[in-house]
Amino acid sequence: MSGAATGPGGDPARPIRLLLVDDHTVVRHGLRMVMDLEDGIEVVGEAANGEEAVRAADERAPDVILMDLLMPVLSGVEAIRRIKATHPTVEIVALTSVLDDRMVIDAVEAGAAGYLLKETGPQPLVEAIRAAARGEVRLDPRAQKRLLREVRTPSMRESLTPRETDALRLIAKGMTNKEIASELGVSEVTVKTHVSSVLSKLGLQSRTQAALFALKEGLTGLD
């Protein structure tokens, strides 16, 4: 099950540094076996609870963290919140056996870039990790629908410009900054400026929240 090597930022020379977080040893072992078969993904550490995850994020410098949400000592949601506060560029994919409305919302609000169920097959899971490393949003369709039902539309501090609206629509389609730049015919630096402005004006913390806003407002449709 070997996939194409796609490092963070699209750099094929560097593998995605992945941290596995789950309180069940057998689950972590199974995940590691799957990831060890993949080109371009390097498991750099494991953690058995949220507190260990926070420490490992400091020590192991992962690009992506696969995070269980139901754990002892410190919950996955709180671990996500603490890690994103100190390492905002680390992308975190929530992986859980529970599809609970409040937990889905809390995980995304804490900064999760993805939300998948443990029943997800190996290949979609690997694809979600690669997508997270590229800065894309990946949500289980059922989680996405629940989020859209519950998410509150923020009040904009300022109106979005036409270009910012275009960028927001493309974020919701799962595009990276590089892909958005190509689509709009501008530089990646310009796209980063647009994205930062969109998040600021909407009072949002992440691309995932921006994508959900765009879906809620009908700027793009569910795939």
Protein topology:
Blueprint: E1 16-21, H1 25-36, E2 41-47, H2 50-60, E3 64-68, H3 76-86, E4 91-96, H4 101-110, E5 114-117, H5 122-133, E6 138-139, H6 141-150, H7 162-172, H8 177-184, H9 188-202, H10 207-216
Parallel strand pairs: 1-2, 1-3, 3-4, 4-5, 5-6
Explain the overall architecture.
Strand 3 (64-68), helix 3 (76-86) and strand 4 (91-96) form a beta-alpha-beta unit. The protein folds into two domains: 8-149, Rossmann fold; 153-216, Winged helix-like DNA-binding domain superfamily/Winged helix DNA-binding domain (Arc Repressor Mutant, subunit A, Orthogonal Bundle), CATH 1.10.10.10. Helices cover 49% and strands 13% of the residues. It is globular, with a radius of gyration of 17 Å. With 223 residues, the protein is of the alpha/beta class. It has a six-stranded parallel beta sheet with strand order 2-1-3-4-5-6, with helices on both faces. Helix 2 runs parallel beside helix 3 (76-86), helix 3 (76-86) packs parallel to helix 4 (101-110) and helix 7 crosses helix 9.
Class per helix and strand makeup: alpha/beta
Tell me the domain tally.
2
Helix content: 40-55%
CATH class of the largest domain: Alpha Beta
CATH topology of the largest domain: Rossmann fold
- In whole angstroms, how far apart are the ends? 26 Å
Q: What is the CA-based Rg, rounded? A: 17 Å
SSE order, one letter for each helix or strand: EHEHEHEHEHEHHHHH
Spell out the key features of this protein.
223 residues; alpha/beta; Rossmann fold; Arc Repressor Mutant, subunit A; 2 domains; 6-stranded parallel β-sheet
